[in-house]
Amino acid sequence: MGSTYKNSDELLAAKYYKKAFLVSPDDPYAVSCHLDYAVPESSDLSVIDLLRPVIMQAYQKSRELADASLELPWSYYNMGKFSMLFKEEFLSLNYYAKALSTTHSVWQVTRVIFSLRRYGPLKSIIPGYESILKLLLIGRSIIDSVNYPVSEIPEISPLNPVIKGPVIIITCNNIFKSQIETKELESFIITSFSDYRGSVILHGPINDISEIAKILLKNYKENLVLYKYSSLNSSNFSISDGSISLSLIKETKSFEPEIVISYWADLIASGINPGEVKLIGFSGGEEIEIEYCISLAFGAKVGIIAFTSRGFAPLFRNKDWSQDENLSFIPNDTETLRAYIGSGISEVPFEEREEIAKTIHQNYQTDEWTRLTRHSTESSFLDWDILPESLKSSNRAQAQHIWEKISHIGYKVRQTPKERIKIIEFTNDEVEILAKMEHGRWNAERLLNGWRYGEKKDIVKKENPNIIPWKDLPDTMREYDRNAVRRIPEILASVGFELYEEIEIQI
After folding, report:
1. For position 399, what pLDDT does the model report?
2. 453 in Cβ contact with 373 (< 8 Å)
3. How confident is the model at residue 34 (pLDDT cuts 50, 70, 90)?
4. Contact at 8 Å (CB) between 230 and 259?
5. HEC assignment per residue over 483-498
6. Neighbours of 145 (CB within 10 A)
7. Is 316 a residue whose pLDDT tops 50?
8. Which of 233, 310, 412, 452 is the most exposed place for a label (fewest CB within 10 A)?
């Protein structure tokens, strides 16, 4: 009956919620609703200390329900509220973010926001309250941007500049530990971003993101626009000479969730689809983990780099997120990260890409190595017309990537009458370069579709033992990639394209 009077008679609502709580003190919903009235009425959090054992019981029941995927998203919302009132800021944000990821109707998050606003007068003594509220407000805007645009939310003030897609977010925390590691990381970043054209958001300690900004601008200043988010008292870093970059800083007191909320508010206000955003993480720890969780909650792809021995383990031990299909553990392999990031541009006409994709699939079906190592009952052996759409997309991605591969070894493509096409043969060195790129592309394609490394291939669990760096790949698998790239000139010729080397004429 409490919900009947929730918006009309506060006293009656409080009365009935209290009765419900007294009847079922271990019911998470009854406890949550009772707290919505009892805590603000006390003007402090003293009631939380008094009811702690009861709240812990309700928390534990919510945990059990969530583990069984029952009463979602409410089980997570309740755990978020209980953790918030226990002053466990990061744990609370984790649960609210997870709740958002399982919320599909705007009324659900609106109801939670209404409940949360009741604690507004106590925000000074509830750590993370404002971050949680903004998280939910942005989440609601993502679900229904027409009725709840970010630009009209009083608690959120997006920056004026419009961020244009595609967007890559790089987050890190004290990753430049030594001179040797700095050089290795610099090389890793340079190679990985060589094809990318678009916006890059940098977030982390000012020393780290300034170093990454310098690396990117030094090598790719004409291709990137950088947006830098860091902490208070950071020196403003901005480089501009025409088409180069813009650097922006949102200032807060420390590495806080507020900064993450800030750049996401800017992205949503700019009309960026969260599902098309990729976050690259170079480190771990409680604070960085929350950034990963928030980005996953909004629908972004999150890839954690195993550049060093630290960084990816904490989040993968988080049972609420470890199986999220948008979360990837990216091998320490530059070609994998380069393909994961993508180029941000498309050069292959649709019709030609489709024909190339069909040819790639036909080669797969007839390849001797494939027939010896694969079961003919697998869906990947089906003819193109009845091939599952996910496998068609995989072949299209491989076709799309051909243009990126050949540009790296100095070739160009031109349309030529088929009878006049001269089919070239790649050198062994060229084959090796292209094969490494193909394995990196395959790794990235698998990761972006929810696959993980596993000791044995398991289609149901989406696990594959070959999602590893090229240097660790068995030579039998390397040879499969080599054979695939050797066929590129022939595949292109089949749809009227010829490879050629551009010759510089000196006068």
Report:
1. 84
2. no
3. very high
4. yes
5. HHHHCHHHHHHHCCEE
6. 14
7. yes
8. 233
Contact assessment for residue 322 and residue 174, using Cβ atoms and an 8 Å cutoff: no
Q: Is the pTM of this model over 0.85?
A: yes
Structure tokens belonging to residue 74: 């409410």
Distances (CA, A) of 436 to 158, 193, 277, 454, 467: 41, 16, 25, 21, 13
pLDDT per residue as tens digits for the range 125-146: 999 999 999 999 999 999 999 9
| Both tokens assigned to 135 | 């998280």
Torsional class of 174: left (φ above 0), alpha (ψ -120 to 50), beta (otherwise): left
Cβ atoms within 10 A of the Cβ of 8, count? 8
Return the domain boundaries, the chain.
Answer: 2-152, 167-341, 350-501
pLDDT at 398: 83
Token code pair at residue 225: 């626009």
128: closest CA among 168, 155, 92, 79?
92
Angle subtended at Cα 445 by Cα 391 and Cα 223, rounded to the nearest 5 degrees:
130
Most confident of 235-244, 413-422, 441-450: 441-450
Name the token pair of 256. Answer: 């806080």
The strand pairing partners of 415, in sequence order, are: 497
Residues 6+ away with beta carbon under 8 Å from 154 = none
User: Residue 412: which H helix or E strand, with range?
Assistant: strand 411-415
Q: Which of 207-221, 431-445, 458-472 has the lowest mean pLDDT?
A: 207-221
CA angle at residue 88 from 87 to 89, to 5 degrees?
Answer: 95
Nearest CA to 328 among 307, 311, 304?
Answer: 304
297: nearest Cα among 317, 266, 326: 326
Backbone angles phi, psi at 276, to 5 degrees: -100, 5
Q: What is the pLDDT of residues 365-391, one digit of tens each?
A: 776 555 555 555 677 778 888 888 888
In DSSP notation, 295-352 reads HHHHT-EEEEE-SSSSSSHHHHT-TTTTT-TTEEEE-S-HHHHHHHH--S---S-HHH
